[in-house]
Design goal:
By secondary structure, this protein is of the alpha+beta class. The protein has three domains: 4-173, Beta-Lactamase; 186-284, PAS domain (Beta-Lactamase, 2-Layer Sandwich); 291-359, Arc Repressor Mutant, subunit A (Orthogonal Bundle). Helix content is 48%, strand content 20%. It contains 17 helices and twelve strands. The protein has helices at 4-7, 9-17, 22-26, 28-35, 60-68, 76-81, 91-94, 97-100, 104-113, 146-185, 204-212, 229-242, 291-302, 306-316, 321-328, 332-346, 351-359, and strands spanning 40-47, 50-56, 88-90, 117-124, 130-137, 189-194, 199-202, 216-219, 222-225, 246-251, 258-265, 279-284. A hairpin with a 6-residue loop joins strand 10 and strand 11. The radius of gyration is 32 Å and the shape is elongated.
């Protein structure tokens, strides 16, 4: 039989489409059945006897009956899983015909649906997962030949490679999804930027800051800022082209407030998982810590009372003692007493060291 790779490229393309496309995966059994001239075909992934995935050519009602009940009774399945890896054999070699005909599976499912003369085999996917391929012709059709066995074996190897690729892609996407979730949980903005300042990908905090115009903007897909626009652009260019890190201040949302931007060359292990050798990571501090979360975090970290934590969070958010006293309707002497308690519990000597301590804390959304 001529090589499938040379003469059935369209079918092979459809087999490998199953690695990327859910519909192609759903139709993988149809693809293999058509390629091999079979009335029925089934491709499954199993962990032991447990079925992880199945693509079958049977009509919907038969497929539902098989997946909901009869696959557990299928006498061919344990025989297939006991075959040496890569061995494809005929149904009568797996289960003697007289044994098959006495089974509930044969009487109630195989005979009514015409699944009578299969050829089956298995290929290991990994340490505990197996790919099985089964094709079937009705008794009125020409029986399977040795050429059919070789063709089935060849196509099954391609199906296994396709499914292994799909599983690797799914694992990679899961890792990227977890990494993105972690990045979205932090309060500082982080973006991957190319040499021209084009933002390739950014976490949620960065996107929200850019939309609000808080110190940074994205104009025409490129990173921009207000007074420090040229400075930030130069830092990005230098980080990409010369692999040199840098930092600058950006105008904040309020008069006199500033944000910190740190620009570093991106490496292949950058948290976004995207790398071409010509990118920089831009990290921008948030304008302030989320106050409600800040209160709870400070209370838990340092054992502050609710009132002390609220005072500390207000200071962390940039308010002066006078502003804090006015907002809380207390005297400055009362506020001083609360600050003394905060210093004692945090180990800070004064406001400056207290703010330095707060600035070292991780900030989350």
């Amino acid at each position: 039989m001529r090589s499938l790779l040379d003469h059935r490229q369209e079918m092979l393309d459809r087999v490998y489409d199953a690695a990327f496309d859910d519909l192609a995966l759903e139709r993988l059994g149809h693809t293999i059945g058509r390629a091999l001239g079979a009335d029925d075909a089934a491709v499954s992934m199993r962990r032991g006897l447990e079925m992880l995935a199945l693509s079958i050519t049977a009509p919907p009602s038969d497929a539902e009956a098989y997946t909901s009940y009869y696959w557990r009774l299928d006498p061919w399945t344990p025989a297939i899983l006991a075959l040496p890896p890569g061995r494809f054999t005929f149904g009568d070699e797996l289960v003697p015909r007289e044994v098959l005909e006495r089974s509930e599976f044969f009487v109630d499912f195989a005979r009514p649906t015409g699944v009578l003369s299969p050829m089956c085999g298995r290929l290991p996917m990994d340490a505990d997962t197996t790919l099985t391929v089964s094709i079937c012709r009705t008794e009125s059709m020409k029986p399977f030949s040795e050429d059919d066995r070789r063709a089935t074996t060849e196509l099954a190897h391609h199906a296994r490679r396709s499914m292994q690729l799909r599983r690797r892609l799914e694992a990679a996407q899961a890792r990227v999804g977890l990494a993105r979730s972690a990045l979205d949980a932090v309060a500082f903005g982080l973006a991957l930027v190319d040499a021209d300042g084009r933002v390739e990908i950014a976490n949620t905090a960065f996107e929200e800051m850019a939309r609000s115009g808080v110190g940074i903007r994205i104009v025409g897909g490129r990173l921009s800022s207000d007074a420090a626009a040229d400075r930030l652009a130069r830092l990005v260019s230098r980080a990409v082209r010369s692999r040199i890190s840098g930092a600058c201040r950006l105008d904040g949302p309020e008069s006199g407030s500033q944000l910190s931007a740190i620009v570093v060359p991106a490496s292949a292990s950058n948290p976004f998982g995207v790398y071409s050798g010509r990118h920089a990571l831009v990290a921008v501090s948030p304008p302030h810590a989320p106050e409600r979360e800040g209160v709870e975090i400070l209370a838990q970290l340092f054992g502050l009372s609710s009132a002390e934590a609220e005072v500390a969070a207000s200071l962390w958010a940039g308010r002066s003692p006078q502003q804090i006293a006015a907002e809380r309707h207390v005297k400055l002497t009362t506020l001083k007493t609360q600050f003394d308690a905060i210093y004692r519990k945090t180990g800070a000597a004064n406001q400056q060291t207290l703010l330095r301590l707060f600035g070292s804390l991780p900030r989350v959304r």
